[in-house]
Design brief:
Elements: E1 5-14, E2 17-27, E3 32-36, H1 43-49, E4 60-68, E5 71-72, H2 80-86, E6 87-90, H3 102-112, H4 118-131, H5 135-138, H6 152-165, E7 170-174, H7 182-195, E8 200-204, H8 208-214, E9 217-222, E10 225-231, H9 232-237, H10 242-248
Parallel strand pairs: 3-8, 3-9, 6-7, 7-8
Antiparallel strand pairs: 1-2, 1-4, 4-5, 9-10
Helix pairs in contact: 3-4, 3-6, 4-6, 6-7
The structure holds adenosine-5'-diphosphate and magnesium ion.
Length: 253
C-alpha cells in the first residue's frame, strides 16, 4: 500500500558542505512526484535521505524529520534496514546482480527476507516482471540468462522488478532513464505512470519533458533548497517563483 512522505527541515551534509539547507515538503501517497533542478542542487541527496542511503556515504550526515506513513525514519528504534524494505530505490545506472540469473535477481530480496517457498517465489517473480513490463521479453530464459546479459533498458526494468518484489510502499528513482535509449526511456516512463497507482513514486529527472509526462506534482530544487512544489502542469505553465520560471524556460541549468 502506498503511503505519503512528510519531510520537515531536512538538512544534509557531506563533511562540512551543506547539500540540503532545510527542505520541508509533503509527498503525496499514490502519486508520482518529480524532483527537478540543475546539477548539484541536491536532488540525489534528497532522495537518498528518504531511505537512509545518505548515511552510507563516508562523512555524510542528515538532520531533520522524515516520516514515511506514520514512521519517523530517523527516530529511535527505527533501523535503516527496516526502512529500505519499505522504500525501494532505482539508480541512474542499472545495477542488477551481474552473475545472478534474471530469476534470482528478482527473487534475491524475498530470499533475504526469509521466503523459502519455491512456488511463492515463482509467483512473485512473474508478477513483478509483468509489472515491470519485462516478462514477455525474458520469460523463456529466466533461469538461463544472467542479469548482465540484458540490454540497458531491460536491466533497468529488471532493477525495478527487483525493487517491487519486496512490496515497498515507496519507490525512489534517481534519473532512472538518463542512461537509456529513447525506446527504453518511453517504456520506463509508461511503467512509472502505471506504478503510481500502487506506489508513491519519487523520481529525480533532469528531463523536464519527462517530469511533465509522468509526474502529478513537481518540486523545483535550487542550491539545496526547495523553491517550489506544485501540480506539474502549474510548475510548467505558470510557476509561482521567478527562479522556477527562469529554469523551466531554459535561462540556466
Ligand atoms: N559524495 C559526495 N561527497 C562530497 N560532496 C558531494 C557528494 N555527492 C554530492 N556532493 C555535493 O553535494 C551537493 C548536492 O549534490 P547532489 O545531491 O548529487 O545533486 P544533484 O543530484 O542535484 O546533481 C553538490 O554540491 C555536490 O557537489
Ligand atoms: Mg543526482
Amino acid at each position: 500500500m502506498a503511503v505519503g512522505i512528510k519531510v520537515e527541515n531536512l538538512k544534509a551534509w557531506f563533511g562540512k558542505t551543506e547539500a540540503l539547507h532545510g527542505i520541508t515538503m509533503d509527498v503525496q501517497s499514490g502519486k508520482a512526484t518529480a524532483i527537478i533542478g540543475p546539477s548539484g542542487c541536491g536532488k540525489s541527496t534528497f532522495v537518498r535521505c528518504l531511505n537512509r542511503m545518505h548515511e552510507t556515504i563516508p562523512d555524510a550526515r542528515a538532520e531533520g524529520k522524515v516520516q514515511i506513513g506514520e514512521t519517523d525514519i530517523y527516530g529511535n528504534g527505527t533501523s535503516a534496514v527496516q526502512i529500505r524494505r519499505r522504500v525501494g530505490m532505482v539508480f541512474q545506472k542499472p545495477n542488477p546482480f551481474p552473475t545472478m540469473s534474471i530469476y534470482d535477481n528478482v527473487a534475491a530480496g524475498l530470499r533475504l527476507n526469509g521466503v523459502r517457498n519455491g512456488r511463492e517465489i515463482e509467483t512473485v517473480v512473474e508478477r513483478c516482471l509483468r509489472s515491470a513490463a519485462l516478462w514477455d521479453e525474458v520469460k523463456d530464459h529466466l533461469k538461463k540468462k544472467s542479469g548482465a546479459s540484458l540490454s540497458g533498458g531491460q536491466q533497468q526494468r529488471l532493477c525495478i522488478a527487483r525493487a517491487l518484489a519486496v512490496e515497498p510502499e515507496v519507490l525512489l528513482m534517481d534519473e532512472p532513464a538518463s542512461a537509456l535509449d529513447p525506446i527504453s526511456t518511453s517504456k520506463i516512463e509508461e511503467l512509472i505512470f502505471s506504478l503510481k497507482q500502487n506506489y508513491t513514486v519519487v523520481i529525480v529527472t533532469h528531463n523536464m519533458q519527462q517530469a511533465a509526462r509522468v509526474a502529478d506534482s513537481t518540486a523545483f530544487f535550487l542550491m539545496g533548497e526547495l523553491i517550489e512544489l506544485d501540480k506539474t502542469a502549474k510548475i510548467f505553465t505558470t510557476p509561482g517563483d521567478k527562479r522556477t520560471e527562469d529554469y523551466i524556460t531554459g535561462r540556466f541549468g
